[in-house]
């Protein structure tokens, strides 16, 4: 029986960080269940049949000590760090849109990540001067550095359907990014524009047949093109969002990292909305 990883359990949740389980995020809940034997029943939204299957597998692996106290993040991050050890930051920085500097005598790559200042060494990642709060950000950023892409951006926008390996990941992009943004900003076009501006979005005025369009740089060499159609209640037309990528993107991120980046982008976009900030106060 295949062990259940923290990522597999996380993907079985709604991934909306509702906190009804008592944890701050769905990923934190999944990690606690897999690594620290928290109760899977704490999540009220897992599908009954799927939950029973996962629960049986998790109980079996925990009896064997599989994944306990050492979650998949640690395994993945350590593996990427080992592979990154042979990279010369000076040789790859320009291709990544980064610069090389030192922090406490340690070489680092400095770049922008989700419109924030990111400093990446071969052992640690800092955002705005502080260690990353979301450890999966580290995995994404290490992947970006490890792939060391240097292909010129094509200026040709493509949907996820045109990227190799997209079939199992497309629903995740739709659920974790496009649908989430459409729901949040439905009927709030001006708020969307303000949030986009605070996240470094550049309006695309020549885009036609949409209510708003922006380009973003969540990573220096991984641009996003976001299209937004607002809802039309009288025509029962729901709000819709579409995210497109530069055709060069497979040279910079694998499909899993790209979809995770899109999900983190959606979270940052919503957090940039003044209404979301007011709710937190």
Descriptive report:
The structure is a single chain. The chain is α+β, with helices and mostly antiparallel strands and 281 residues long. It has three domains: 6-63, Electron transport complex subunit B, putative Fe-S cluster (3-methyladenine DNA Glycosylase II, Chain A, domain 3); 72-147, no CATH class; 157-280. The protein contains ten helices and ten strands. The protein has helices at residues 6-12, 26-36, 48-63, 72-84, 89-96, 135-147, 170-185, 189-198, 255-271, 274-280, and strands at residues 99-103, 106-113, 116-120, 125-127, 130-131, 157-158, 202-203, 212-219, 222-229, 240-246. The strands form two sheets. The chain has a five-stranded antiparallel beta sheet with strand order 1-2-3-4-5, with helices on one face. The chain has a five-stranded antiparallel beta sheet with strand order 6-10-9-8-7. Strand 2 (106-113) and strand 3 (116-120) form a beta hairpin. Helix 1 (6-12) packs across helix 2 (26-36), helix 4 (72-84) packs parallel to helix 6 and helix 7 runs parallel beside helix 9. The longest helix is centred in the last third of the chain and has 17 residues, at 255-271. It is globular. The mean pLDDT is 88.
Can you summarize this structure?
By secondary structure, this protein is of the alpha+beta class.
């Amino acid at each position: 029986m295949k062990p259940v990883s923290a990522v597999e359990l996380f993907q079985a949740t709604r991934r909306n960080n509702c906190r009804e389980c008592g944890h701050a995020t769905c990923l934190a809940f999944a990690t606690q269940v897999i690594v620290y034997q928290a109760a899977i029943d704490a999540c009220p939204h897992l599908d009954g049949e799927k939950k029973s299957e996962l629960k049986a597998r998790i109980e079996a692996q925990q009896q064997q000590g599989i994944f306990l106290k050492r979650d998949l993040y640690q395994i993945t991050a350590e593996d990427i760090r080992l592979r990154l050890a042979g990279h010369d930051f000076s040789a790859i920085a320009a291709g990544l849109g980064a610069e090389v500097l030192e922090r406490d005598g340690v070489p680092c790559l400095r770049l922008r990540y989700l419109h924030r200042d990111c400093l990446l060494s071969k052992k640690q990642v800092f955002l705005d001067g502080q260690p990353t709060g979301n450890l999966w950000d580290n995995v994404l950023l290490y992947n970006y550095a490890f792939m060391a892409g240097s292909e010129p951006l094509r200026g040709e926008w493509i949907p996820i359907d045109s990227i190799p390996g997209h079939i199992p990941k497309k629903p995740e992009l739709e659920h974790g990014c496009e649908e989430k943004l459409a729901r949040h900003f439905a009927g709030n076009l001006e708020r969307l524009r303000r949030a986009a501006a605070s996240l470094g979005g550049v309006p695309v005025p020549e885009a036609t047949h949409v209510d708003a369009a922006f380009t973003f740089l969540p990573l220096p060499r991984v641009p996003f093109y976001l299209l937004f159609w607002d809802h039309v209640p009288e025509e029962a037309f729901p709000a819709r969002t579409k995210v497109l990528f530069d055709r060069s993107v497979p040279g910079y991120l694998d499909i899993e990292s790209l979809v995770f980046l899109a999900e983190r982008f959606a979270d940052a976009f919503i957090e940039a909305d003044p209404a979301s900030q007011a709710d937190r106060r």
